[in-house]
Amino acid sequence: MDIAQEELARHNASRLTLLRIRHGVLAQVQPEAMRMAFDAMTAGTPHEGAKLELVEEPLRLCCRLCGNEFTPEDRNAMYLPCPFCGETAPFGITGGEGIFLDHLEAE
Q1: E-assigned strand segments in 1-107
Q2: S-S: 77 plus which of 12, 65, 68, 72, CB 3.0-4.6 Å?
Q3: Contact 10, 42 (CB under 8 A)
Q4: Distances (CA, A) of 29 to 37, 67, 100
Q5: How far apart are CA 12 and CA 107, in angstroms?
Q6: Phi, psi torsion values for 15, nearest 5 degrees
Q7: Distances, alpha carbon 24 to alpha carbons 11, 34, 84, 88, 103, in Å
Q8: Do 55 and 22 meet the contact criterion of CB atoms below 8 Å apart?
Q9: How many Cα atoms sit within 13 Å of 3 on the Cβ side?
């Protein structure tokens, strides 16, 4: 909400109507808990009634040996052989981490 407030001030807006949060699967966001927290934080403020959208970003890995990127079905794939070269090399994480303010709409 702090980041959203800064953006509202930067654009001379006073009421948040939509907040879209993009979160990686590795961030382990609990959507219902996030929605409850959002509702509690906006209750009694000009932002009350704003819509919260949560978009989960899948895990993206890159094999450090062959350089191929892939999106595994399961995050346990970080410990399996590369689907391209078969090596059990460490993978670089190229997506699926963190929590980001992706988009907001305001009046």
Answers
A1: 16-24, 51-57, 60-63, 69-70, 91-95, 99-106
A2: 72
A3: no
A4: 12, 29, 12
A5: 9
A6: -130, 125
A7: 27, 14, 23, 23, 16
A8: yes
A9: 9
The residue type at 7: E
Q: How far is residue 83's CA from residue 78's CA, in Å, rounded to a whole number? A: 11
Residue 11 DSSP label: T
Residue with tokens 């993009």: 22
Burial 10-45 (b: 16+ CB within 10 A, else e): eeeeeebeebebbbbbbeeeeeeeeeeebeeebeee
**Cα(51)–Cα(41) distance, integer angstroms:** 13
CA of 93: how far to CAs of 35, 36, 66, 75, 78, in Å?
Answer: 27, 30, 14, 11, 9
Q: What are 38-78's pLDDT values in tens digits?
A: 999 999 999 999 999 999 999 999 999 999 999 998 877 78
pTM of the complete model beyond 0.90: no
